[in-house]
Amino acid sequence: MNPDLIYQLALKNTPGIGTIGAKLLIAHRGGARAVFETPKKELMRIPGIGPRSVHKIHHKEALRLAEKELEFAYHAGIKAFSYLDEGYPNRLKSCEDGPVVLFQKGNLNLNAQRVIALVGSRKATSYGLAFCERFVAALKALEVVVISGLAYGIDICAHKEALKNNIPTAAVLAHGLDRIYPSLHTKIARQMLQEGGALLTEYPSGTNPDRENFPSRNRIVAGICDAVVIVEAARKGGALITAEIANSYNRDVFAVPGRLGDTYSEGCNLLIKTHKATIITTVKDLEYLLGWTKKDMDVKQPQLFEHLTRHEQLLVDCLSGTSGQPLALDRLCAIAKLPIGKVLSTLLNLELKGIVKNLPGKMYTLAPR
Questions:
Q1: What is the CA radius of gyration of the chain?
Q2: What's the CA gap between 250 and 278, in Å, rounded?
């Protein structure tokens, strides 16, 4: 086990620190244990860290609870991954607010080549459920992992259909792994584990499925996949929150259109209307827009860069075709046929991954490898 894990978990659970604060402290001090060993006066000099939070860091209770949680995880067969560990999902590593520690029950490979999240209304209609069943069944040919949240409606439909078609599936939960919520889905959760799936959470055991946990859970759903498909959604709700987060992570977002006036199609139609999601009606749309084909899976050609979004791969391809010569920002926008805002945000992600290098004069090139 990572010897720093207990300190990372304790730091993340320290009141007032949070995910981004914990990562900031760890980065400045070179490790979570070093944070606990650093005098408070030095910690207060770190930008973005206030004195009120610093005074809570050396709290022995946080370390005791972290140790207790890791002991529970060990006896329950739960893996605990730090965001610095090799086993942590690679896609989440690129998300600034990805969990400091992620708990996983089950042996599913979360770094699979293709991961799709399906989410939607808890009050799904027959229209949404029928689409979800057809869509997931058709995903079988693409060898994907299906992610959802084990909730009523679209979520549980996606998990059930994945199991029915022998597609590996994982649920991201808004509570600890000592329980299943809703309890009615316990049987499905167990079946998922038996058939190679997984249950994931950032919350320690004993955490209730409180309302405020679900938006936080949704960011993991959005960050752990290549693309999010919104099947049904009202104008307000968790599915739209997931779509917003996915867009902020530069994930591809798709929405299933519905009839005008239908309450649980209003959210999807709004996402499409405001260009926050691409319309999707069949798996063929997904194949075409993401550039996925069955032939690609059969050949399994090695990729120079793994786990890139569609836009990231597009910019890498543009820069790869310059024989090593840098490209100006405006020229890159023209070749990629993308708006400057999308290009800049995508380039920033590629820089953080060490794939692209930013040169003076708004010139860009692939970083040496």
A1: 21
A2: 13
Q: What pLDDT digit, counting tens, does each position of 39-48 carry?
A: 888 888 887 7
Give the pLDDT score at 320. Answer: 83
Residue 297 and residue 144 in contact, taking contact as beta carbons nearer than 8 Å: no
The Cβ of residue 367 has, within 10 Å, a number of other Cβ atoms equal to: 14
Say if strands 115-119 and 145-148 run parallel, antiparallel, or are unpaired: parallel
pTM (two decimals): 0.79
Q: Which domains does the chain have, with CATH numbers?
A: 5-79 (1.10.150.20), 115-290 (3.40.50.450), 310-366 (1.10.10.10)
**DSSP secondary structure letters along 82-99:** ETTSTTS-HHHHT-TTS-
The rounded distance, in Å, linking the Cα atoms of 199 and 173 is 7
Rounded CA-CA distance 205/220 in Å is 18
Which one, of 68, 139, 144, 78, lies nearest residue 107 by Cα? 78
Residue written as token pair 């060990």: 74
**How many whole angstroms separate alpha carbon 106 and alpha carbon 112?**
15
DSSP per position, 258-312: --TT-GGGHHHHHHHHTTSSEE--SHHHHHHHHT--HHHHHH----SS-S--HHH
Could you give the percent of the chain with pLDDT greater than 90?
58
| pLDDT higher than threshold 70 for residue 216 | yes
- What DSSP line would sit under 15-49, residue for residue? TTTHHHHHHHHHHHHTSHHHHHHS-HHHHTTSTT-
Instruction: Tell me if 52 sits within 8 A of 59, measured CB to CB.
Output: no
Q: How far apart are the two ends of the chain, measured CA to CA in Å?
A: 30
Do 30 and 54 form a contact (C-beta atoms < 8 A)?
Answer: no
d(Cα 106, Cα 83) in Å, to the nearest integer? 18
